[in-house]
Amino acid sequence: MARLFYKEKFLHKKKETDQQKANTEKTEDKYIVCPDCQKGISRAAAVANYYVCPECGSYFRVRTKNRIRMVCDSNSFIPWFEDVVTENPLNFPEYEEKLKTVQEKTGLMEGVTVGQGEIFGERVCLGVCDSRFLMGSMGHAVGEKIASAVERATSQKLPVILFCCSGGARMQEGIISLMQMAKTSAALKRHADAGLLYVTVLTDPTTGGVTASFAMLGDIILAEPGALIGFAGPRVIEQTIGEKLPKGFQSAEFQLEHGFVDCVVERKELKDTLYQIIKSHRVSAENESFSCFTEEVPRFFPTEPDRERFYKTPTKSAWEKVKEARNITRPSTLTYIHLIFDDFIEFHGDRNCRDDKTIVGGIAWIYGQPVTVIGVQKGNDAKECVYRNYGMTSPEGYRKALRLMKQAEKFHRPVICFINTSGAYPGMEAEERGQGEAIARNLFEMSGLKVPVLSIVIGEGGSGGALGLAVGNEVWMLENSTYSILSPEGFASILWKDGKRAKEAAQIMGITADDLKRLLVIDRIVPEYGCACEETVADISGYLKSHMVSFLKQFDHMDGEAIAAQRYDRFRKF
Q1: End-to-end alpha-carbon separation of the chain, Å?
Q2: This model's pTM is above 0.85
Q3: Does the first or last residue of the chain, that is N or C, have fewer Cβ atoms within 10 Å of its Cβ?
Q4: Is the pLDDT of residue 513 over 70?
């Protein structure tokens, strides 16, 4: 009787346990616990919010199938190379058993899934790394699938988009894992040499051998907010140097600030951003013309009052124009970019040290023609001037500009530069990081760019700091801008040992648009209809946009060598 009682009690307890387990599983199926704020949110809310915690904004790690669903058009993804088999080159104990367990748990055969998909109808080769599979570590099979996918993309002339997520090389495969770094990089070099686009999206975490190979080789590198990105992981660094790392070290935002990431993009905007990037590069690659305008190009005429205001403008002295050029309220590079171009996507960093805030640059559209736009952003108020270092560019800024120019050359995009700087930054740190070399390298490389380059001085054009963006097929100046060997104050101090004679110096230095047009240093004077200000900036922008169209059209029947030769001849005559 006692045995029967205990048996019934056991069965009742087991039934309760099974019911509790079922309820827990049901609850877990409906809710996700945020790893940062520890709050439970419904799975439906997580999906609707792109797997971002609505409470604290933390980004959840995303499974492969969900990533594909968020990025690719419905039912457009076709997997490639699913038959690649993972090997055990070192006969590492229990490695096969561990792989089998992970495969059964995740439903994946390996840590990366590759294939072909579409993003708003644009065909791409897509790769997605999954942290659930041995922390996305890179072994032979991962390297083989990525290299094979890149090779197929090269043969089919497809852009490659790779979502990176990894703890690094796979320890169980030893040196063979290390070789995947070289193998994937070599495949990407061939893809690059074919003039094709490669975009990486760095997600949490991207570390180790993956960072030191395919993750950091993108023509454009995007990152998700808050993602851990670095070569050595934080734990390895702390154990090695015996110091606690600061908060935010190796985050996506840290990498953006230090010049290694083009953009930090919110997940909800990622598909649209990728589409804009892919489309701009497809249009460039498919057209030999530099004026493949897909929208109607109207001819710009200023209104009669504006034309009269321009022609009735009283003559200004050189010193008055110096003051006009320096005016803090004068329209800035970003103002002109947003008024002239469509869908500007800003890219950051020199991929070496830092993101110089004085240089802004990226891809934009003019009547459907993609262009690379670069300029010096000086600032329109005291706070922005401090943030932008008053438009005085450091070596990293020139290297960022050159990186974007070389990218434009690779993808057959014209380059348009806006210049407004009193000169390159003369600080000690700029000298330590090679200010002279950075400017010289720009002059060297710009002279040979095989795409049209237009440079426009919109304010001050100060010395070599301005010339670092002004080796163009044509150089234009706004009516009241200046372009000089150095400031009038510096000229007077050096030549006459009296900086107070700056006004007199400005008059004889030949620094105004009229002077430089007479000397054939510039090709066009852009009217300001009185002065460049809030009231006239729309008309100035319209004039610039109209004449940019004419500028681009003249290069339609010229090959890259002829374009570079024309630029060489322009500067050779001085």
Answers
A1: 113
A2: yes
A3: N
A4: yes
